[in-house]
Specification:
This protein has three helices and five strands; from the N terminus they run βαααββββ. By secondary structure, the protein is α+β, with helices and mostly antiparallel strands. The longest helix has 19 residues.
């Protein structure tokens, strides 16, 4: 059993600019339909939610990067950040079989979003 941690922080304005400049092209490359639906439901705060999910995906990439090789190839949409019925975010990751448990924490304010991922691998 291995523990791996990843952390990321991003400026919300950066994600807002990308969403506005490249619109559907950027969003459909990075986010799943469920993630887009969730973020769009947040109204004027949607870019904070997009940024938090971006940071969470980056944190996960950082946590598992040392275990990725030619056998595993994952992209942005292979990691899906959704919330359970109590609002706690969790990650679904497709294409890897070495993860036995993953816990993520995300937070955001107007200017920044931050996320941490703790992964237990086999």
């Amino acid at each position: 059993m291995n523990l791996n941690i990843g952390n990321d922080i991003i400026e919300t304005k950066r994600i807002e600019r990308l969403c506005k400049k490249f619109s559907k092209r950027f969003m459909n490359r990075v986010y799943t339909n469920k993630e887009i639906e969730y973020c769009e439901s947040k109204g004027e705060n949607k870019y904070q939610s997009y940024a938090a999910r971006f940071a969470a995906k980056e944190a996960i990439f950082k946590a598992i990067s040392n275990q990725l090789d030619n056998k595993y190839s994952i992209g942005w949409k292979d990691i899906e950040i959704i919330n359970n019925e109590y609002g706690k975010p969790f990650a679904n990751i497709r294409g890897v079989d070495f993860i036995s448990n993953i816990d993520i924490s995300m937070s955001h304010v107007k200017e920044y979003a931050i996320a941490t991922a703790l992964i237990v691998s086999k």
